[in-house]
């Protein structure tokens, strides 16, 4: 049963909120690095080297514009073609929750043992979303 709602947009909004949080955290950490003297404000002009205090946040923020772009494009395509259903909405939430968890691990301990499986959960959810879209288009 297809949905006639905008439920697919809420996971997308939640992911955008994560990106806004990461931008804020990056700014906070960069300011702290400048205040502590471990970085000069001038080095952010071309940003050729990120201070250690903000490096993990900077790297994670860049990650939010890689796989998530496929998620957002797929979610919009699923919505636009009326292919959304409870399963696609759950998959979208699985993706977003995995991104929050991945980001938390990335900017704290950065332990690949935990980070990689969280990434793979989001990756799998995105692959299944695109797979469902292909099936939907092929059979509609």
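^ structure tokens above, recovered residues below v
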């Amino acid at each position: 049963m297809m949905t006639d709602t905008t439920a697919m947009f809420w996971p997308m909004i939640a992911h955008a909120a994560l990106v806004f949080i990461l931008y804020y955290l990056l700014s906070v950490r960069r300011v702290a690095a400048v205040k502590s003297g471990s970085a000069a404000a001038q080095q952010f002009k071309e940003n050729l080297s990120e201070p250690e205090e903000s490096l993990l946040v900077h790297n994670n923020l860049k990650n939010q514009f890689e796989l998530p772009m496929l998620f957002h494009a797929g979610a919009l395509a699923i919505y636009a073609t009326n292919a959304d259903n409870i399963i696609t909405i759950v998959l979208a939430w699985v993706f977003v929750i995995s991104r929050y968890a991945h980001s938390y691990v990335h900017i704290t301990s950065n332990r690949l043992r935990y980070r990689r499986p969280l990434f793979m959960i989001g990756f799998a959810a995105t692959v299944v979303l695109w797979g469902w879209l292909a099936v939907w288009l092929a059979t509609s």
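The radius of gyration is 18 Å.
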